Amino acid sequence: MSYYRALGFEREPFSTSPDPEFFYSSREHDRAFTNVLIELRLKRGLSVVLGDVGTGKTTLSRKLVQDLRKRDDCIFHIMLDPSFENRSLFMHSIVKNFGIPLEAGSQGPTLTDLREATERFLFQKGVVENKSVVLIIDEAQKLDPMSMEALRLLLNYETNQFKLLQLVLLGQNELLTSIQQIPNFMDRISFKTRLNPLDLEEMKELIFFRIEQAGYRSKMDLFLQDALSEIYQFTKGYPRQVTMLCHKALKTMLMRNKSVVDRALVNDILEEEVQFGWQRTNRLLQNSSF
Predict the structure, then answer these.
(1) Is 189 helix (H, G, I), strand (E, B) or coil?
(2) CA pseudo-torsion sign 271, 275, 277, 281
(3) Cα(first)–Cα(last) distance of the chain, in Å?
(4) Domains of the chain, each with CATH number or no CATH
């Protein structure tokens, strides 16, 4: 039997996989999610979400995908690893994943062929069929300057009323530096935000939310308040770190035949982290916007 079933859960409560069903909507995450959806519906073009490692960008992207799947007026693709050797391979990936038809030829398509095919596709879907074409790029800090320039050119395709491609970039904070180095890219951003770590109360809500989503129905709390304070002190509110530590805490609680996670149990886990050199390094303070 899985450890979480022994504790009364139907699913693992603290998996680090980006399951949208476990998306906790903090104030910043809710603001980012709502604003990106508005930008997509208005077809305004480019949205950028920045955040440090483990602040919930990938889960946010999966939540967006979940919402877009419900819409019949939307064609979308999510790119999980935007690392390509050159601009042609990047454009070929876009063409392939959107199923864009290429004109028959004796040789492989050139970069110009790929761009023209993409432009025809965007016009057909956006103007003739009145659909939104959405490209979501996770780990967007991996985009090289050539791919960024390709995206800038795609954002030029528009009607008098709206952009033909809706682009959402989610990346670590260094993505901002890359954007600033591309002329006429920064001013194309219609919505931009930065995800910061949770505060103490939001972290508690995250933990309780995930426990409830996993099917825990007992009235007995699994985490004492002093344990939650210790978890926050160690994780600084980074969601990924919170879920990983809570996972370890529940496993340890079960193996020790305890009924609750208290400060002593959390401290034992943290002491082991330090002993084996697994402790987190300090992070720079983040700004709320850019």
Answers:
(1) strand
(2) positive
(3) 47
(4) 27-195 (3.40.50.300), 198-274 (1.10.8.60)
